[in-house]
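The following block was generated as part of the benchmark described in Methods. Ligand: iron/sulfur cluster.
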Amino acid sequence: MKCRKCGGRAVLELRRHNTAFCADDFQAFFRHHTLETIRRWQMFTREEPVLVAVSGGKDSLALWDVLLEAGYTTAGLYLDLGIFDYSRESKARCQAFAAERGARLIVVAVAETVGAGIPLVEQATRRPTCSACGLSKRYLMNRTALEQGFTVVATGHNLDDEAATLFGSTLRWDEASLARQTPVLEATHPKLVRRVKPLFRLSERETAAYAFLRGIDYIVEECPFARGATSITHKDVLNRLEDASPGSKASFLLTYLDRARPRFQAGDPVELRECARCGQTTTGEVCAFCKLADQVRRHREAAGALSPAGPVAVETDDPAGSRGLVSDLDAASEIHAS
Ligand code: SF4
Ligand SMILES: [Zn+2]
Ligand SMILES: [Zn+2]
């Protein structure tokens, strides 16, 4: 197999593009594709400092690498979720990556703002871990960006992530999720920053190849809570389709964005105001994150004061607020900067 560009030995075949590249030309292809996506979708300008949400995984570190190489002003944001060894190891990867490149890394611990790491949040709220985690990530990304003077946050979502999310939303005909499926979530309120996904047209296999060829030391293990997630089944189904018909994933996602999304978008007007407690945006009086932190605090108080034998699941005394929380958590569950 020969490189389409230089005729040298190809290291990677890209069936959906009907092409193959050597190591150098694949890296050039990957960079060009990412920068072209940023330009075409007007994700951010050369002058804008970009906060890159990094998890220690291949996608977000590959994205940060491309932006640094291209000369963008960036800082990394690592959210420490407090998930046992997974968090310790992924944080170490991000710190080493930043140190090697002399780049700035901001570390924010969920436990410092919510009162506990993600595993305990799940016990306290009795909600699916990934929902509570997604909500916390979305909130802390936005708040940190505002506090540190960034107008845009970039995440490492790739084509496989985005196609799987779209597939899941379509199976449920979840109109609100379908409306939010976009590589550029504009800031629709002064207290929101833009969220962009510059890798959304590149597959997981391509980001893995780029990270490998660049010698990026990333965490290979998945978060322990990812096991058994429905999104993994959706990815498997899409991979089978892709095997049978290369280009299916990209066509599913890109055609949706081009033709169908505007219809869902029109039907999803949301009025935002500022949370009475923290000032971040919400559709209610108090935002879902503040309610989550309250639940965690009550759980810890109850566990400490009433049940020395172990944690106690705390019921909310605000059923209406709880229903709002559940829907906000669901809305946030797609946020997973891999
Ligand atoms: S799988 Fe992702 S969203 Fe779920 S708990 Fe782990 S890091 Fe959070
Ligand atoms: Zn070549
Ligand atoms: Zn709040």
